[in-house]
Amino acid sequence: MRKISLIVLFVICFSAVTAQTERHIEVESAVVTTHTTTIKGKKVPYKATAGTQPVWNEKGKPIASLFYTFYERTDITDKTTRPLVISFNGGPGSASIWMHIAYTGPVVLNIDDEGYPLQPYGTKSNPYSILDVADIVYVDPVNTGFSRIVDEEVDRSTFFGINSDIKYLADWVNTFVTRQNRWASPKYLIGESYGTTRVAGLVAQLQNSHWMYFNGVIMVSPTELGIDRGAPIHTSNYLPYYAATAWYHKALDSSLQNQDLDDFLPEVEAFTINELIPAVVKGGTLSATERDAIATKYALYSGLSKEVILEHNLLIPTNFFWKELLRDKGMTIGRLDSRYKGFDNAGTGSRPDFDPALSSWNHAFAPSFQIYVRENLNFKTDLTYNLFGPVHPWNRSNENTGYDLGDAMRQNPYLHLMVQSGYYDGGTDFFNAKYNLWQIDAAGRMADRISWKGYRSGHMMYLRAEDLETSNEDIRQFIINSMVAPDMPAKYN
Q: Where in the chain is the domain with CATH 3.40.50.1820?
């Protein structure tokens, strides 16, 4: 009997300890800290709120809790004219950490001027943050960062898909804006990578279903946005990126290598549109003479041999390019930032073993955020911060986000769009980003509200010190220029 009692007592005690120490996220919480930083030489006081806010189902029951970090300048009392920027990263399945502690927020990573990690890990003040001109909230979608599903019975398709992601996040943003009394504020969405798909759909969903209107959308390294282009166009459009990368690695003929990148690329873009794409579309009907001429020029611009271009029928896969460009030097190049180099176990093969850019970035971001969120923001939890969370399978069907964004712009004369791209980004290349804009404004009627900016870096252009300053300034000016004067009607003349 005594043995049984001890066992029962042990089970009860163990259960109690387990219940007390079980890792979970509070459905609603908020931790506020106050800070001061210097931006462009001027002191900016602000408060940071690190917390969680629920996602509800149609019956008002919490089904998930999203972690967010909200930065508000505290020396401005009139919020009606104070812009609000709502920031997302991509993946899908990526937390908001990337732009949060490396781009627009008040702190940035301790990294070198080219974006490589340094020790000791940590953050430092961001002298170029846009917090001087706008309040910013960074949002982690379900299963990213500290955000979690709290109702285990809920269907995962509620969250994990292009359109379901947009729908529940629109509801969440509506609640956040309402709670913060920011309906009067000029509002902006910014997204990076898959986050551009997210914000393109969100601006339309919020406008059409919540009657919330925005002044601007900022896309950093955009995806295809559901815009139809077909394999010949999509693959051909990579050539300007190949050319920029080959130029960076000094793999081109001196006649091109000695030109400035900005002078050289328009020539490659013109060739891509006017010669390469028409040739690829012809397929097997292309004459041998035409094929040879296109391959010769492709080789000149890409740094690859004419022979491998002909072997691939003028369509060079990105994986092959990352492996092939510096193969003779025993090196591979990065997918997300092709300035970064790595090496594989073997020089053979048609694709690199890993992306040296992403490996370097994970190394820099993960430890630094863990320190920052706990020590600077005072947010305590035993949960793992998911840089990349479990969100699969992801339903990619019925994507129309790029076209939806175009519709939203035509319906809202206040709405502006800016795209930022890195020339050396092979994951979401700059020329396909330009192609997006041509299709979003196929009629050519919104050119005064659409802009594109290029930077001499990769997917996260802001990791390069020079581009951190210029890209933030581009956002700052975009916000300032898309503000409207009091009592200016939203109408077309």
A: 29-227+363-482
The phi-psi region of residue 225 (left if phi > 0; otherwise alpha if psi is between -120 and 50; otherwise beta) is: left
| Paired strand residues for 44 | 37
- Are the C-beta atoms of 264 and 243 separated by less than 8 Å? yes
pLDDT band at 141 (very low <50, low <70, confident <90, very high): very high
Please list the residues that pair with 297 across neighbouring strands: none
Backbone angles phi, psi at 483, to 5 degrees: -70, 145
pTM of the model: 0.93
Q: What is the token pair recorded at 437?
A: 């804009």
- Quick check: 448 and 492 in contact, CB under 8 A? no
Task: Using CB atoms within 10 Å of the CB of residue 368, give its burial: 0 to 12 exposed, 13 to 18 middle, 19+ buried.
Answer: buried
Please give the sequence-ordered ranges of beta strands (E in DSSP) within 89-175, or none if there are none: 107-109, 123-125, 135-139, 148-149
Please write the tens of the pLDDT for every residue from 314-367.
999 999 999 999 999 999 999 999 999 999 999 999 999 998 888 888 788 988
Q: Minimal CA–CA distance to 216: which of 337, 134, 119?
A: 134
Look up residue 1 and give its two tokens: 């009997």
Cβ-contact 357, 340 below 8 angstroms: yes
- Quick: pLDDT tens for 293-319: 999 999 999 999 999 999 999 999 999
Q: Helices 162-179 and 194-209, interaxial angle, to 10°? A: 60
Architecture label for domain 29-227+363-482:
3-Layer(aba) Sandwich (3.40)
- Looking up tokens 């999509």 gives 234
3-state secondary structure of 20: helix
Contact 359/352 with Cβ under 8 angstroms? no
Sign of the torsion angle spanned by Cα atoms 181, 135, 379, 160 = positive
Residue 217 and residue 450 in contact, taking contact as beta carbons nearer than 8 Å: no
- Check: CB of residue 126 under 8 Å from CB of residue 368: no
Residue pair 185/82 in contact by the 8 Å Cβ criterion: yes
| Residue 6, Cβ density class (10 Å: 0-12 exposed, 13-18 middle, ≥19 buried) | exposed
What is the rounded end-to-end Cα distance, in angstroms, of the chain?
90
Separation between Cα atoms, residue 102 and residue 206, nearest integer Å:
27
Buried b (16+ CB within 10 A) or exposed e, 64-82: bbbbbbbbbbeeeeebeeb
Is the pLDDT at 24 greater than 90? The verdict is no
CA distance linking residue 187 with residue 209, whole number of Å? 16
Residues with Cβ within 8 Å of 175's Cβ and at least 6 positions away in sequence, in order, are 53
Neighbours of 206 (CB within 10 A): 25
